[in-house]
Amino acid sequence: MKRYTENRVNWLRSGDRNTQYFHAVTKEKRIKNTINSIQDEQGVIHRGRKELSKVAVNYFQDLFASNGTDPTMYVKVFQNFQ
Questions:
Q1: What single-letter DSSP state applies at residue 53?
Q2: Is 38 helix (H, G, I), strand (E, B) or coil?
Q3: How far apart are CA 26 and CA 34, in angstroms?
């Protein structure tokens, strides 16, 4: 939040004169927030947009296609709270 406030103050002081600075800051944030590689369940590291997409799709398909949890597990957990 502090960084946002500092950037806002700089922008208000300099107006449009400092546009190049703010474009550079935005570009830096975009690069920093980019996912370049991902590791799957087997420990294999994948790179590239298509591979990252495939790993993500497989992960969420497996996650949402699972049969869920064992209902008796909840009973065991909540017995400890009585």
A1: H
A2: strand
A3: 12
